[in-house]
Amino acid sequence: MSGHSKWATTKRQKAVTDSKRANVFTKLGRAITVAAREKGGNPDSNFTLRLAIDRARAANMPKENIERAVKRGTGEIKEGAEIEELIYEGFGPGGTAIIIKCLSDNKNRTASDIKHVLNAHGGQLAGKNAVAWQFELKGVIRIANEKIVDKNLDELELQLIDLGAQEMAKEEDSLVVYTKMEDLQKVSKGIEGLGFSADYAEIEYVPKEWISLDEEKTKKNEALFEALDEMEDVDNYYSNLK
Fold first, then answer.
1. Which of 6, 79, 109, 189 lies 20 to 30 angstroms, CA to CA, from 214?
2. This prediction's pTM
3. Helix, strand, coil % over all residues of the chain, rounded to 5
4. Which residues in the chain show pLDDT less than 50?
């Protein structure tokens, strides 16, 4: 399986150019703030916060920025409007289904911007549940292939199943492990217990079925995804494009 979601964005963040660094840090800071606000500022007890901080460190976000984002979430620092999570659904070129998760301090601005970007790239904004039924929430963990090169894959898969993994898929750059949403933390910690460090662990909207398009429509969708990546309010997006 393959798809378009935060994994691609996360990899790009590691080599982000200076011109885009501020945008990336804003996205990461908002994710940290929301996670700290919802479940507290201690990453040892707040798994979502720990994942957000790990992503920020992978993108070389300064320590003081991370700490400020946590304090903003816990209320120790009061600055700016409150960040809220917004979910938009839409269609891309060729009828691809897209779910876009935003973290925004201005709902009206974000809705207008999302609609504009979709229209500009041959897509359209849709109503609630127009495409959500085509996805299901799952835990998604990725382990870089070079970390498991000497490991017997059959043995590893059995160990992962014992930990609670539902499904595994070998991709070009990583082994993808799918879990129930509520089992993500347990399986992630279990993987660490096996001596591996996950390169990515998130709750994602995973398509129930993937679709393939011709080269032209695929490129148009990829241009849309790049535009979404560049939007400050967009935290993540999910598509059923294979």
1. 6
2. 0.86
3. 50, 25, 25
4. 1-2
